[in-house]
UniProtKB/TrEMBL annotation:
Any Pfam family matching the protein: CTP_transf_like
Keyword Nucleotide-binding among record annotations: yes
Biological classification of the source: Bacteria, Bacillati, Bacillota, Bacilli, Bacillales
The protein, known as: Probable nicotinate-nucleotide adenylyltransferase
Keyword check for Nucleotidyltransferase: yes
UniProt-listed SUPFAM superfamilies: Nucleotidylyl transferase (SSF52374)
Length: 204
């Protein structure tokens, strides 16, 4: 049985922090593979700043030299209002029936799930396992214990809480802003992605 992490984000664009986070999780949680899952551009809570094809191309450029990283367009091809993370994880559990699937997220999303902001929250927590990355000094144990959705569906193996040991919070939005304002965030994202953005005039 293999161990696979599902890492969802807009990746608009993918950054060095995304890659560093994925690599940290891969090694510290002894995963066999991490699947990068770009979200749908039809989400109501996020507005993509560039076309899906550009997001996809940059992600492939960023991970093509690591055989333990893989990109999957499943959510990118879905209508966002018809799908939740619960359905997404069911899809991957069916696709990889012989493997154990973990959903990778930040501690801020743990709080959102605990507050009932995610569709099928009870079933999502009850039927899945999560790797949760520390973020913004959020007390993850307190977040779990204070939420009925989280604590009542936790069998002791549901949440793998992980502190990266180093605060790295450079966001895609920061990089987009730098490009749009004429800055040069060259060393905050993979070199191939930087060149791709410059070539195609993205985020101007």
């Amino acid at each position: 049985m293999g161990k696979i992490g599902i890492y969802g984000s807009s990746f608009d664009p993918v950054t060095n922090v995304h890659l560093w986070t994925a690599n940290t999780i891969l090694h510290r949680c002894n995963l066999d593979k991490i699947i990068f899952l770009p979200c749908s551009n039809k989400r109501r809570d996020k507005k993509m700043q560039t076309e899906d094809q550009h997001r996809w191309n940059m992600l492939e450029l960023a991970i093509n030299d690591n055989n333990q990283f893989e990109a999957d367009a499943y959510e990118m091809n879905q209508n966002a209002w018809k799908i939740t993370t619960y359905e997404t994880l069911k899809h991957f559990k069916n696709k990889f029936k012989d493997d154990r699937i973990y959903f990778i997220m930040g501690a801020d999303l743990l709080i959102d799930i605990g507050q009932g902001k995610w569709g099928n929250g009870d079933l999502l927590v009850k039927e899945n396992q999560f790797i949760v990355m520390a973020r913004n000094e959020i007390n993850m144990l307190r977040a779990i214990s204070s939420s009925p959705i989280l604590r009542n569906n936790d069998d002791g193996k549901t949440f793998h809480l992980l502190d990266k040991g180093l605060a790295m919070e450079i966001s895609s939005s920061y990089i987009r802003d730098e490009f749009s304002l004429g800055g040069d965030p060259r060393y905050l994202l993979p070199e191939a992605c930087y060149k791709y953005i410059k070539k195609h005039g993205l985020y101007q």
